[in-house]
Write a structure and sequence with these properties.
It is elongated and about 65 Å long. Helix 4 runs antiparallel to helix 6. It is 31% helix and 32% strand. It has 2 domains: 132 residues, Rossmann fold, CATH 3.40.50; 89 residues, LytTr DNA-binding domain (OB fold (Dihydrolipoamide Acetyltransferase, E2P), Beta Barrel). A 5-stranded parallel beta sheet has the order 2-1-3-6-7, sandwiched between helices. It contains 8 helices and 17 strands. It is α/β, with parallel strands linked by helices and 253 residues long.
Length: 253
């Protein structure tokens, strides 16, 4: 993607000016081709303008950014959400692996988000948006997929296919069935927050496991679990009692 055509949707004109100045002064190969302050003007702008990336404010009373996306059955542009509220909808955004910027916006974060846009595949976004809409509309417990960034775009992953997640400094290795794995630039703590109510448990500082992939429990001094890929994962002593108490609700011990 040589030249990125960007549009900004935010209900506060001051925020539009700030972001436009960052894009024009600090981000090479980016042209701002559209702006709007509400979802209806934004919808018209998107229909009549070819864009590569939309910087979209989440909260725009009486509407929100998700409602704008729902107006388009097919999205052929990337979305970078903007929010002033650190907790608002961030879990949904993380699940869909869509980028977001926290206000006040920092130049470095805009640059990092645009680097991901340059490497992404537009065709993946429609799939990501559908997953995000499902998450927002449906019961949290029914959510069964996450999206992870890869070199050429995004992969949609069924939670049931994740055997475990392993910490590598600030990165996380996601081990899947069929000997497939991905190294993601997110901390294990972030995945723990996303997946702890989906059948995943942090048994060790370095491991978050899918309890449905446990095939053997080793008790004694070196308490551990053997996963479906035959990986032997230790259970920390301080986690042991809590882990077995939780496991009783899933399998007979």
């Amino acid at each position: 993607m040589s030249n990125i055509k960007a549009a900004i949707v935010d209900d506060e004109v001051r925020n539009i000016h700030i972001l436009r100045n960052i894009l024009e002064n600090y981000c090479k190969d980016v042209t701002v081709v559209g702006e709007a302050q509400n979802i209806h003007d934004a919808a018209e702008m998107i229909k009549n303008t070819q864009i590569d990336v939309l910087f979209l404010d989440i909260e725009m009373p009486p509407h929100n950014g998700f409602q704008l996306l729902e107006m388009f059955p097919v999205l052929n542009f990337e979305v970078i959400f903007i929010t002033a509220f650190q907790e608002y909808a961030l879990q949904a955004i993380k699940f869909a692996a869509l980028d977001y910027l926290l206000k006040p916006i920092k130049v470095s974060e805009v640059e990092d988000a645009l680097e991901k846009v340059k490497k992404s595949k537009k065709g993946r976004l429609n799939e990501l948006a559908s997953i995000l809409k499902d998450y927002v509309k449906n019961n949290d417990n029914a959510f069964s997929k996450i999206v992870i960034p890869v070199n050429d775009g995004y992969n949609v992953i069924d939670l049931k296919d994740i055997i475990y997640c392993e910490a590598f400094d600030s990165y996380t290795k996601i081990q899947l069935i069929n000997n497939v794995s991905h190294l993601i630039s997110k901390s294990l703590k972030e995945y723990e927050e996303m997946l702890s109510d989906k059948g995943f448990y942090r048994v060790h500082k370095s491991f978050l496991i899918n309890i449905h992939h446990i095939v053997k429990i080793i008790k004694g001094l070196g308490t551990a679990v053997v996963m479906s890929d035959q990986k032997n994962i230790p259970i920390s002593s301080r986690k042991k009692d809590e882990f077995f108490a939780q496991l009783k609700g899933v399998i007979n011990l």
